[in-house]
């Protein structure tokens, strides 16, 4: 059998009520030439048994005990047979034409090494939220703002497998392992990024996420570590500003400004 063109990579370690929607959204893709690598990392027997209910020849299920999302994703990258890797998280939803749109773009633009897309935010019930991720489309705007914030939605990316292997995958296993990876990729000016100006992904907000505001101090310590490292390498003061943005005080200010904006729009 020929190798698939795309390897979809998802790591999971618990059942939280969203897994069915996430997996089925991939199996229902209009693009069919893919394998679906599911890495069950540090899971219990109930979850692993539950994953076996999804019957599809494209699914490749692995059970490991490495711990940490970065380790699980690196394991999956090493298993991938596709020339592109598409990320997926176990609580989100990919719209039906996501893989096709990203694959077509990558094939037509070989200089682009990683492509994302626009998205909507949904809550635990799948209902749309008013909040949106700030969208950056072209390579220049993505790179310009990358020191300050993560300009690419990680679970919605498609990237060249060769690139991820060349970069050594994800590092550290800290918070925002994706942001750190994107910054390392950006060190080479020939590596081009792009976000499709099309809503192809539903990103779910819920209390079980590690990005929850209650973990802000720990997240700040981990994120500021690689941002400060990059500052020392580049002396780009945007990385210092980025550290201020992800600080607990900075996050509270941003959340407050979003609430004020929503109140103003309702008035």
UniProtKB/TrEMBL annotation:
Segments traversing the membrane: 225-250
Annotated keywords: Glycosyltransferase, Membrane, Transferase, Transmembrane, Transmembrane helix
Residue ranges of domain Glycosyltransferase 2-like in the record: 11-148
GO MF annotation terms: glycosyltransferase activity
InterPro entries for this protein: Glyco_trans_2-like, Glycosyltransf_2, Nucleotide-diphossugar_trans
Gene3D superfamilies named among the record's database cross-references: Spore Coat Polysaccharide Biosynthesis Protein SpsA, Chain A
The family this protein is said to belong to: Belongs to the glycosyltransferase 2 family.
This protein's name: Glycosyl transferase family 2
Organism, scientific name: Acidovorax soli
Organismal lineage: Bacteria, Pseudomonadati, Pseudomonadota, Betaproteobacteria, Burkholderiales
């Amino acid at each position: 059998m020929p190798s698939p063109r795309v390897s979809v990579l998802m790591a999971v370690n618990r059942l939280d009520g969203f897994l069915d929607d996430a997996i089925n959204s991939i199996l229902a893709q209009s693009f069919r030439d893919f394998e679906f690598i599911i890495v069950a990392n540090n899971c219990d027997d109930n979850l692993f048994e539950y994953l076996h209910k999804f019957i599809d020849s494209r699914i490749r299920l692995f059970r490991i005990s490495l711990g940490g999302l970065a380790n699980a994703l690196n394991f999956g990258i090493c298993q991938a047979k596709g020339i592109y890797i598409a990320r997926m998280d176990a609580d989100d939803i990919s719209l039906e034409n996501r893989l096709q749109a990203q694959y077509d773009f990558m094939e037509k633009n070989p200089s682009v090494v990683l492509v994302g897309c626009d998205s909507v935010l949904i809550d635990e019930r799948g209902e749309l939220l008013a909040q949106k991720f700030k969208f950056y489309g072209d390579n220049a705007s993505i790179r310009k703002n990358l020191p300050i914030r993560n300009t690419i939605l990680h679970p919605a990316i498609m990237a060249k497998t060769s690139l991820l292997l060349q970069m050594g995958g994800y590092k550290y296993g800290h918070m925002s392992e994706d942001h750190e990876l994107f910054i390392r990729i950006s060190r080479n000016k020939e590596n081009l990024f792009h976000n499709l100006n099309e809503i192809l992904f539903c990103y779910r907000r819920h209390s079980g996420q590690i990005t929850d505001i209650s973990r802000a101090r720990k997240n700040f310590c981990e994120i500021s570590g690689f941002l400060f490292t990059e500052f020392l390498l580049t002396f780009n003061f945007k990385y210092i500003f980025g550290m201020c943005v992800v600080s607990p005080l900075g996050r509270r200010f941003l959340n407050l400004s979003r609430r004020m904006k929503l109140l103003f729009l309702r008035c």
